Amino acid sequence: MSNDGGPPREPAADLRLRTVRALRGPSLWATHPVVACDVEAGGVLVRQPPASVPGMEDGLAASLPALAASSIDDRASTPAAWAELVGRVAAALQTLAGSPVTFVAVMVGQGDDAPQLAVGYAEEDAGIESLYAAAELVTRCANGEPVDAGRAVEAVRGAYLRAHPEPTAWLLMEAARQRGIPVRRFEDDPVIQLGLGRTLRRLDGAMTDFTSVIAADIISHKDRTRRVLARHGLPVPRGGVAERLEDALEMAEDLGYPVRVKPLDAHDGRGISGRLDTPEAVRVAWRAAHAEHSRVVVEPFVDGRDHRVLVVNGRVVAVAERVPAHIVGDGARTIRELAGEANRDPRRNPHDPAAPRVPLPLDEATARYLERCGHTLDSVPAAGERVQLRGAGNISTGGTSIDRTDDLHPRNAALCVLAAGAVGLDVAGIDVLTSDISVPFDQNGAAIIEVNARPGLRMHADPDQGAPRDAAGAILDMLYPPGAPTTIP
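-> C-alpha coordinates emitted (489 positions)
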Protein backbone atom coordinates (compact mmCIF):
# COMPACT_ATOMS: atom_id res chain seq x y z
CA MET A 1 0.00 0.00 0.00
CA SER A 2 1.30 3.49 -0.84
CA ASN A 3 1.17 6.64 1.27
CA ASP A 4 -0.13 9.70 -0.71
CA GLY A 5 1.53 8.36 -3.81
CA GLY A 6 4.88 8.11 -2.01
CA PRO A 7 7.08 5.03 -1.55
CA PRO A 8 5.53 1.95 0.12
CA ARG A 9 5.31 2.20 3.89
CA GLU A 10 7.53 -0.22 5.82
CA PRO A 11 5.41 -2.85 7.58
CA ALA A 12 5.43 -2.38 11.35
CA ALA A 13 7.62 -4.55 13.53
CA ASP A 14 5.79 -7.63 14.71
CA LEU A 15 6.80 -10.46 17.07
CA ARG A 16 4.54 -13.43 17.67
CA LEU A 17 4.92 -16.30 20.11
CA ARG A 18 3.65 -19.70 19.04
CA THR A 19 3.12 -22.95 20.97
CA VAL A 20 3.99 -21.46 24.35
CA ARG A 21 4.34 -24.34 26.80
CA ALA A 22 5.86 -25.17 30.17
CA LEU A 23 8.31 -28.06 30.32
CA ARG A 24 8.20 -29.06 33.97
CA GLY A 25 10.84 -31.78 33.99
CA PRO A 26 14.10 -32.57 32.21
CA SER A 27 13.92 -31.76 28.49
CA LEU A 28 16.15 -31.24 25.47
CA TRP A 29 16.77 -27.75 26.81
CA ALA A 30 17.77 -28.37 30.40
CA THR A 31 17.36 -30.66 33.40
CA HIS A 32 15.39 -27.93 35.19
CA PRO A 33 11.96 -26.51 34.23
CA VAL A 34 11.71 -24.03 31.35
CA VAL A 35 9.00 -22.28 29.37
CA ALA A 36 9.45 -22.68 25.62
CA CYS A 37 7.92 -21.21 22.48
CA ASP A 38 8.51 -20.48 18.80
CA VAL A 39 9.32 -16.83 18.04
CA GLU A 40 8.13 -15.51 14.67
CA ALA A 41 9.56 -12.16 13.58
CA GLY A 42 7.44 -10.25 11.09
CA GLY A 43 7.37 -6.87 9.38
CA VAL A 44 10.66 -4.99 9.26
CA LEU A 45 12.14 -7.45 11.73
CA VAL A 46 12.45 -10.08 9.01
CA ARG A 47 15.41 -8.19 7.54
CA GLN A 48 16.76 -6.18 10.46
CA PRO A 49 18.57 -7.71 13.44
CA PRO A 50 18.04 -5.98 16.80
CA ALA A 51 21.34 -4.11 16.75
CA SER A 52 20.44 -2.33 13.49
CA VAL A 53 17.06 -0.99 14.62
CA PRO A 54 17.50 2.71 15.54
CA GLY A 55 17.09 3.36 19.27
CA MET A 56 16.49 -0.30 20.09
CA GLU A 57 19.48 -0.73 22.37
CA ASP A 58 19.03 2.58 24.19
CA GLY A 59 15.29 2.08 24.59
CA LEU A 60 15.63 -1.33 26.21
CA ALA A 61 18.56 -0.29 28.40
CA ALA A 62 16.60 2.73 29.67
CA SER A 63 13.51 0.71 30.51
CA LEU A 64 15.24 -2.41 31.83
CA PRO A 65 18.52 -1.62 33.60
CA ALA A 66 18.81 -5.32 34.52
CA LEU A 67 19.18 -6.11 30.81
CA ALA A 68 22.81 -5.96 29.73
CA ALA A 69 23.45 -4.09 26.50
CA SER A 70 25.58 -7.01 25.33
CA SER A 71 22.38 -9.09 25.23
CA ILE A 72 21.68 -7.62 21.80
CA ASP A 73 23.72 -9.94 19.62
CA ASP A 74 24.33 -8.78 16.04
CA ARG A 75 26.31 -11.90 15.14
CA ALA A 76 23.44 -14.36 15.29
CA SER A 77 21.02 -14.83 12.39
CA THR A 78 18.24 -12.25 12.36
CA PRO A 79 15.39 -14.56 13.51
CA ALA A 80 17.53 -16.14 16.23
CA ALA A 81 18.72 -12.73 17.44
CA TRP A 82 15.13 -11.57 17.97
CA ALA A 83 14.27 -14.79 19.79
CA GLU A 84 17.28 -14.42 22.07
CA LEU A 85 16.43 -10.80 22.78
CA VAL A 86 12.89 -11.78 23.81
CA GLY A 87 14.41 -14.42 26.10
CA ARG A 88 16.82 -11.95 27.70
CA VAL A 89 14.02 -9.46 28.30
CA ALA A 90 11.81 -12.21 29.78
CA ALA A 91 14.61 -13.25 32.15
CA ALA A 92 15.18 -9.61 33.15
CA LEU A 93 11.45 -9.16 33.88
CA GLN A 94 11.39 -12.24 36.10
CA THR A 95 14.51 -11.05 37.92
CA LEU A 96 13.03 -7.60 38.56
CA ALA A 97 9.82 -9.29 39.75
CA GLY A 98 11.76 -11.06 42.51
CA SER A 99 12.43 -14.37 40.77
CA PRO A 100 16.03 -14.35 39.47
CA VAL A 101 16.45 -16.22 36.18
CA THR A 102 19.62 -16.71 34.13
CA PHE A 103 18.85 -19.55 31.72
CA VAL A 104 18.03 -18.48 28.16
CA ALA A 105 18.61 -20.68 25.10
CA VAL A 106 17.66 -20.51 21.43
CA MET A 107 17.45 -23.37 18.96
CA VAL A 108 17.65 -22.23 15.33
CA GLY A 109 14.88 -23.57 13.12
CA GLN A 110 15.52 -25.45 9.88
CA GLY A 111 14.50 -23.80 6.63
CA ASP A 112 11.56 -21.48 7.21
CA ASP A 113 10.89 -22.80 10.72
CA ALA A 114 10.82 -20.16 13.42
CA PRO A 115 13.58 -20.34 16.06
CA GLN A 116 12.63 -21.94 19.35
CA LEU A 117 13.22 -20.13 22.65
CA ALA A 118 13.49 -21.51 26.18
CA VAL A 119 13.66 -19.47 29.41
CA GLY A 120 14.03 -20.78 32.95
CA TYR A 121 11.47 -20.07 35.64
CA ALA A 122 10.77 -20.53 39.35
CA GLU A 123 6.99 -20.20 39.00
CA GLU A 124 5.36 -21.44 35.82
CA ASP A 125 2.74 -18.71 35.49
CA ALA A 126 5.37 -16.00 35.99
CA GLY A 127 7.58 -17.60 33.33
CA ILE A 128 4.76 -17.66 30.77
CA GLU A 129 3.68 -14.10 31.64
CA SER A 130 7.28 -12.90 31.20
CA LEU A 131 7.44 -14.30 27.64
CA TYR A 132 4.31 -12.48 26.48
CA ALA A 133 5.34 -9.27 28.27
CA ALA A 134 8.82 -9.45 26.75
CA ALA A 135 7.50 -9.92 23.21
CA GLU A 136 5.24 -6.88 23.65
CA LEU A 137 8.06 -4.71 25.05
CA VAL A 138 10.47 -5.63 22.26
CA THR A 139 7.82 -5.04 19.58
CA ARG A 140 6.90 -1.61 20.96
CA CYS A 141 10.54 -0.62 21.25
CA ALA A 142 11.24 -1.71 17.66
CA ASN A 143 8.31 0.42 16.48
CA GLY A 144 9.53 3.43 18.42
CA GLU A 145 6.49 3.39 20.69
CA PRO A 146 6.50 4.22 24.44
CA VAL A 147 7.60 1.31 26.62
CA ASP A 148 6.17 0.78 30.12
CA ALA A 149 8.54 -1.78 31.61
CA GLY A 150 7.26 -1.04 35.11
CA ARG A 151 3.81 -2.30 34.25
CA ALA A 152 5.28 -5.41 32.67
CA VAL A 153 7.33 -6.10 35.79
CA GLU A 154 4.22 -5.70 37.97
CA ALA A 155 2.29 -8.14 35.77
CA VAL A 156 5.05 -10.73 36.12
CA ARG A 157 5.35 -10.05 39.85
CA GLY A 158 1.61 -10.51 40.27
CA ALA A 159 1.74 -13.88 38.54
CA TYR A 160 4.76 -14.84 40.66
CA LEU A 161 3.11 -13.89 43.96
CA ARG A 162 -0.16 -15.61 43.12
CA ALA A 163 1.66 -18.84 42.36
CA HIS A 164 4.28 -18.65 45.11
CA PRO A 165 3.93 -21.39 47.76
CA GLU A 166 3.64 -20.77 51.49
CA PRO A 167 6.96 -20.35 53.37
CA THR A 168 7.43 -23.94 54.55
CA ALA A 169 6.79 -25.35 51.09
CA TRP A 170 9.17 -22.79 49.59
CA LEU A 171 11.96 -23.73 52.03
CA LEU A 172 11.54 -27.41 51.17
CA MET A 173 11.53 -26.71 47.43
CA GLU A 174 14.68 -24.58 47.64
CA ALA A 175 16.45 -27.20 49.75
CA ALA A 176 15.49 -29.86 47.20
CA ARG A 177 16.78 -27.79 44.29
CA GLN A 178 20.09 -27.24 46.07
CA ARG A 179 20.42 -31.02 46.38
CA GLY A 180 19.64 -31.53 42.70
CA ILE A 181 16.27 -33.15 43.46
CA PRO A 182 13.63 -32.51 40.77
CA VAL A 183 10.77 -30.36 42.08
CA ARG A 184 7.28 -30.04 40.65
CA ARG A 185 4.33 -28.08 42.03
CA PHE A 186 1.00 -26.93 40.62
CA GLU A 187 -0.57 -23.60 41.55
CA ASP A 188 -3.95 -25.10 42.46
CA ASP A 189 -2.47 -27.94 44.54
CA PRO A 190 -0.53 -27.50 47.81
CA VAL A 191 1.22 -30.84 47.39
CA ILE A 192 4.85 -30.72 46.24
CA GLN A 193 6.30 -33.54 44.16
CA LEU A 194 9.97 -34.37 44.61
CA GLY A 195 12.00 -36.78 42.50
CA LEU A 196 10.88 -38.67 39.41
CA GLY A 197 9.64 -42.16 38.67
CA ARG A 198 10.17 -44.68 41.43
CA THR A 199 11.96 -42.05 43.55
CA LEU A 200 8.95 -39.70 43.60
CA ARG A 201 7.95 -38.40 47.05
CA ARG A 202 5.15 -36.01 48.02
CA LEU A 203 4.99 -33.27 50.65
CA ASP A 204 2.12 -31.18 51.96
CA GLY A 205 4.01 -28.51 53.83
CA ALA A 206 6.21 -30.46 56.25
CA MET A 207 3.85 -33.45 56.16
CA THR A 208 5.39 -36.23 54.10
CA ASP A 209 3.96 -39.24 52.32
CA PHE A 210 5.57 -41.29 55.11
CA THR A 211 3.24 -39.67 57.67
CA SER A 212 0.78 -42.08 59.24
CA VAL A 213 -2.88 -41.30 58.59
CA ILE A 214 -3.68 -42.56 62.09
CA ALA A 215 -1.06 -40.25 63.59
CA ALA A 216 -2.49 -37.26 61.72
CA ASP A 217 -5.96 -38.21 62.97
CA ILE A 218 -4.76 -38.42 66.58
CA ILE A 219 -3.14 -35.00 66.62
CA SER A 220 -6.13 -33.38 64.89
CA HIS A 221 -8.02 -34.02 68.14
CA LYS A 222 -6.27 -32.01 70.85
CA ASP A 223 -7.90 -33.80 73.78
CA ARG A 224 -7.11 -37.20 72.30
CA THR A 225 -3.51 -36.10 71.81
CA ARG A 226 -3.33 -35.07 75.47
CA ARG A 227 -4.64 -38.46 76.60
CA VAL A 228 -2.18 -40.38 74.37
CA LEU A 229 0.76 -38.37 75.71
CA ALA A 230 -0.45 -38.79 79.31
CA ARG A 231 -0.54 -42.58 78.88
CA HIS A 232 3.16 -42.42 78.03
CA GLY A 233 3.93 -40.45 81.19
CA LEU A 234 4.62 -37.20 79.37
CA PRO A 235 3.91 -33.87 81.11
CA VAL A 236 0.58 -32.54 79.84
CA PRO A 237 -2.00 -30.25 81.46
CA ARG A 238 -5.27 -31.69 82.72
CA GLY A 239 -8.39 -30.61 80.93
CA GLY A 240 -11.57 -31.51 79.13
CA VAL A 241 -13.77 -30.75 76.13
CA ALA A 242 -16.88 -28.58 76.19
CA GLU A 243 -19.60 -28.15 73.58
CA ARG A 244 -21.44 -25.40 75.49
CA LEU A 245 -20.23 -22.24 77.19
CA GLU A 246 -21.89 -23.34 80.44
CA ASP A 247 -19.85 -26.56 80.43
CA ALA A 248 -16.66 -24.62 79.76
CA LEU A 249 -17.33 -22.30 82.69
CA GLU A 250 -17.99 -25.29 84.96
CA MET A 251 -14.75 -26.96 83.86
CA ALA A 252 -12.82 -23.76 84.49
CA GLU A 253 -14.18 -23.62 88.04
CA ASP A 254 -13.27 -27.28 88.64
CA LEU A 255 -9.76 -26.87 87.24
CA GLY A 256 -9.17 -23.56 89.01
CA TYR A 257 -8.16 -20.28 87.42
CA PRO A 258 -6.14 -19.33 85.45
CA VAL A 259 -7.16 -21.44 82.44
CA ARG A 260 -6.92 -21.30 78.66
CA VAL A 261 -9.33 -22.40 75.94
CA LYS A 262 -8.63 -23.57 72.41
CA PRO A 263 -10.55 -25.20 69.55
CA LEU A 264 -10.45 -28.98 69.47
CA ASP A 265 -8.93 -28.77 65.99
CA ALA A 266 -7.44 -25.58 64.54
CA HIS A 267 -4.28 -24.32 62.87
CA ASP A 268 -1.96 -21.31 63.02
CA GLY A 269 -3.02 -20.40 66.55
CA ARG A 270 -6.56 -19.46 65.54
CA GLY A 271 -8.97 -19.37 68.46
CA ILE A 272 -6.34 -20.19 71.12
CA SER A 273 -6.60 -17.90 74.12
CA GLY A 274 -3.94 -16.60 76.43
CA ARG A 275 -4.28 -16.61 80.21
CA LEU A 276 -7.89 -16.37 81.41
CA ASP A 277 -8.42 -15.36 85.06
CA THR A 278 -12.18 -14.83 85.28
CA PRO A 279 -15.45 -16.32 84.01
CA GLU A 280 -15.99 -13.18 81.93
CA ALA A 281 -12.63 -13.70 80.22
CA VAL A 282 -13.66 -17.29 79.43
CA ARG A 283 -16.92 -16.04 77.90
CA VAL A 284 -15.03 -13.66 75.60
CA ALA A 285 -12.42 -16.25 74.61
CA TRP A 286 -15.10 -18.90 74.07
CA ARG A 287 -16.52 -17.00 71.09
CA ALA A 288 -13.21 -17.06 69.20
CA ALA A 289 -12.51 -20.71 69.99
CA HIS A 290 -16.04 -21.88 69.23
CA ALA A 291 -15.95 -20.07 65.87
CA GLU A 292 -13.11 -22.40 64.84
CA HIS A 293 -14.64 -25.66 66.11
CA SER A 294 -17.87 -26.72 67.75
CA ARG A 295 -15.94 -28.39 70.59
CA VAL A 296 -13.52 -26.42 72.77
CA VAL A 297 -10.72 -27.64 75.04
CA VAL A 298 -10.50 -26.12 78.53
CA GLU A 299 -7.26 -26.68 80.42
CA PRO A 300 -5.19 -25.08 83.19
CA PHE A 301 -3.00 -22.22 82.04
CA VAL A 302 0.64 -23.26 82.23
CA ASP A 303 2.99 -20.37 82.84
CA GLY A 304 6.18 -20.35 80.81
CA ARG A 305 7.73 -19.35 77.52
CA ASP A 306 6.39 -20.91 74.35
CA HIS A 307 8.82 -23.30 72.61
CA ARG A 308 8.53 -25.30 69.41
CA VAL A 309 10.65 -28.46 69.27
CA LEU A 310 10.99 -29.96 65.78
CA VAL A 311 11.45 -33.73 65.69
CA VAL A 312 12.33 -35.40 62.38
CA ASN A 313 12.72 -39.15 62.03
CA GLY A 314 13.22 -39.69 65.76
CA ARG A 315 15.70 -36.84 66.24
CA VAL A 316 15.39 -33.25 67.49
CA VAL A 317 16.71 -31.01 64.73
CA ALA A 318 15.65 -27.53 65.91
CA VAL A 319 14.15 -25.66 68.86
CA ALA A 320 12.69 -22.16 68.74
CA GLU A 321 11.27 -19.94 71.44
CA ARG A 322 8.24 -18.19 69.99
CA VAL A 323 7.75 -14.63 71.20
CA PRO A 324 4.19 -13.26 70.89
CA ALA A 325 3.54 -10.26 68.67
CA HIS A 326 4.36 -7.13 70.65
CA ILE A 327 5.45 -3.51 70.50
CA VAL A 328 7.68 -1.43 72.80
CA GLY A 329 6.30 1.94 73.86
CA ASP A 330 8.06 5.27 73.41
CA GLY A 331 5.79 7.36 75.65
CA ALA A 332 4.47 9.35 72.70
CA ARG A 333 2.77 7.13 70.12
CA THR A 334 -0.24 4.86 70.39
CA ILE A 335 -0.10 1.09 70.09
CA ARG A 336 -1.75 1.39 66.69
CA GLU A 337 0.90 3.84 65.48
CA LEU A 338 3.79 1.77 66.84
CA ALA A 339 2.45 -1.38 65.21
CA GLY A 340 1.91 0.49 61.96
CA GLU A 341 5.52 1.63 61.95
CA ALA A 342 6.72 -1.93 62.63
CA ASN A 343 4.61 -3.18 59.72
CA ARG A 344 6.45 -0.88 57.34
CA ASP A 345 9.54 -3.02 57.89
CA PRO A 346 10.24 -4.85 54.58
CA ARG A 347 10.65 -8.04 56.61
CA ARG A 348 6.90 -7.85 57.38
CA ASN A 349 5.82 -7.14 53.80
CA PRO A 350 2.58 -9.16 53.32
CA HIS A 351 3.10 -9.14 49.54
CA ASP A 352 6.58 -10.70 49.69
CA PRO A 353 6.44 -14.50 50.04
CA ALA A 354 10.06 -14.54 51.16
CA ALA A 355 9.51 -12.06 54.01
CA PRO A 356 10.60 -13.73 57.27
CA ARG A 357 7.85 -12.11 59.36
CA VAL A 358 4.15 -11.38 58.97
CA PRO A 359 2.53 -8.03 59.87
CA LEU A 360 1.59 -7.30 63.47
CA PRO A 361 -2.17 -7.89 63.80
CA LEU A 362 -4.44 -4.88 64.33
CA ASP A 363 -7.73 -6.76 64.16
CA GLU A 364 -10.64 -7.43 66.49
CA ALA A 365 -8.84 -10.30 68.21
CA THR A 366 -5.97 -7.95 69.07
CA ALA A 367 -8.40 -5.35 70.39
CA ARG A 368 -10.04 -7.96 72.64
CA TYR A 369 -6.71 -9.17 73.95
CA LEU A 370 -5.54 -5.62 74.69
CA GLU A 371 -8.81 -4.90 76.49
CA ARG A 372 -8.22 -7.86 78.82
CA CYS A 373 -4.77 -6.43 79.53
CA GLY A 374 -6.10 -2.93 80.28
CA HIS A 375 -5.18 -1.33 76.94
CA THR A 376 -6.77 -0.29 73.67
CA LEU A 377 -5.20 0.20 70.26
CA ASP A 378 -5.16 3.94 71.04
CA SER A 379 -3.38 3.59 74.39
CA VAL A 380 0.02 5.28 74.68
CA PRO A 381 2.39 2.89 76.50
CA ALA A 382 5.22 4.30 78.56
CA ALA A 383 8.71 4.50 77.12
CA GLY A 384 10.26 1.04 77.21
CA GLU A 385 6.98 -0.68 78.15
CA ARG A 386 6.47 -3.93 76.26
CA VAL A 387 2.86 -4.57 75.21
CA GLN A 388 1.80 -7.94 73.81
CA LEU A 389 -0.75 -7.96 71.00
CA ARG A 390 -1.59 -11.65 71.27
CA GLY A 391 -1.42 -14.23 74.02
CA ALA A 392 0.17 -16.96 71.89
CA GLY A 393 3.53 -16.78 70.16
CA ASN A 394 2.47 -18.03 66.74
CA ILE A 395 4.63 -16.77 63.90
CA SER A 396 1.49 -16.60 61.72
CA THR A 397 0.04 -13.90 64.00
CA GLY A 398 3.07 -11.63 64.03
CA GLY A 399 5.25 -13.46 66.54
CA THR A 400 9.04 -13.71 66.32
CA SER A 401 11.46 -16.50 67.15
CA ILE A 402 14.68 -17.12 69.06
CA ASP A 403 16.75 -20.20 68.33
CA ARG A 404 17.17 -22.38 71.45
CA THR A 405 18.44 -25.59 69.85
CA ASP A 406 21.72 -25.62 71.75
CA ASP A 407 19.93 -24.89 75.05
CA LEU A 408 17.69 -27.98 75.00
CA HIS A 409 18.37 -30.34 77.93
CA PRO A 410 19.09 -33.93 76.75
CA ARG A 411 16.29 -35.33 78.93
CA ASN A 412 13.85 -32.88 77.40
CA ALA A 413 15.03 -33.87 73.92
CA ALA A 414 14.32 -37.53 74.74
CA LEU A 415 10.82 -36.66 75.97
CA CYS A 416 10.02 -34.71 72.78
CA VAL A 417 11.19 -37.63 70.65
CA LEU A 418 8.98 -39.88 72.78
CA ALA A 419 6.02 -37.54 72.21
CA ALA A 420 6.47 -37.73 68.42
CA GLY A 421 6.73 -41.50 68.63
CA ALA A 422 3.72 -41.79 70.95
CA VAL A 423 1.41 -40.35 68.30
CA GLY A 424 3.37 -41.95 65.44
CA LEU A 425 4.64 -38.89 63.54
CA ASP A 426 7.76 -38.90 61.36
CA VAL A 427 7.85 -35.07 61.41
CA ALA A 428 6.39 -33.41 64.50
CA GLY A 429 6.29 -29.94 66.00
CA ILE A 430 6.10 -30.35 69.79
CA ASP A 431 4.79 -27.24 71.59
CA VAL A 432 6.20 -26.91 75.09
CA LEU A 433 5.56 -24.27 77.75
CA THR A 434 8.52 -23.97 80.09
CA SER A 435 10.34 -21.18 81.87
CA ASP A 436 13.70 -22.60 80.77
CA ILE A 437 14.18 -25.24 78.06
CA SER A 438 17.61 -26.10 79.51
CA VAL A 439 16.02 -27.38 82.75
CA PRO A 440 14.42 -30.86 82.82
CA PHE A 441 10.66 -30.64 82.39
CA ASP A 442 9.94 -32.38 85.69
CA GLN A 443 11.93 -29.78 87.61
CA ASN A 444 10.10 -26.62 86.52
CA GLY A 445 6.50 -27.63 85.84
CA ALA A 446 6.81 -27.65 82.06
CA ALA A 447 4.02 -29.08 79.90
CA ILE A 448 3.58 -30.32 76.35
CA ILE A 449 0.47 -28.51 75.15
CA GLU A 450 0.24 -29.55 71.51
CA VAL A 451 1.68 -31.73 68.74
CA ASN A 452 1.63 -30.64 65.08
CA ALA A 453 1.88 -32.82 61.96
CA ARG A 454 2.57 -29.89 59.59
CA PRO A 455 4.98 -27.74 61.59
CA GLY A 456 6.14 -24.47 60.07
CA LEU A 457 9.85 -24.26 59.29
CA ARG A 458 10.33 -20.50 58.83
CA MET A 459 10.93 -19.87 62.55
CA HIS A 460 13.89 -22.29 62.45
CA ALA A 461 15.31 -21.28 59.07
CA ASP A 462 15.24 -17.54 59.76
CA PRO A 463 15.03 -16.81 63.50
CA ASP A 464 15.08 -13.23 64.72
CA GLN A 465 17.84 -14.17 67.15
CA GLY A 466 20.26 -17.07 67.10
CA ALA A 467 21.58 -19.43 64.46
CA PRO A 468 19.42 -20.64 61.54
CA ARG A 469 18.75 -24.38 61.38
CA ASP A 470 18.40 -26.46 58.24
CA ALA A 471 15.05 -27.99 59.17
CA ALA A 472 14.06 -28.50 55.53
CA GLY A 473 17.33 -30.33 54.88
CA ALA A 474 16.64 -32.71 57.76
CA ILE A 475 13.29 -33.66 56.23
CA LEU A 476 14.84 -34.22 52.81
CA ASP A 477 17.60 -36.34 54.35
CA MET A 478 14.87 -38.56 55.79
CA LEU A 479 13.15 -38.88 52.41
CA TYR A 480 16.39 -39.25 50.45
CA PRO A 481 19.22 -40.61 52.62
CA PRO A 482 22.74 -39.79 51.39
CA GLY A 483 23.46 -41.74 48.22
CA ALA A 484 19.81 -42.55 47.52
CA PRO A 485 18.65 -41.92 43.90
CA THR A 486 16.38 -38.92 43.37
CA THR A 487 15.49 -39.20 39.69
CA ILE A 488 15.40 -41.50 36.69
CA PRO A 489 18.97 -42.31 35.51
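Residues 257 and 277 are 5 Å apart (CA to CA).
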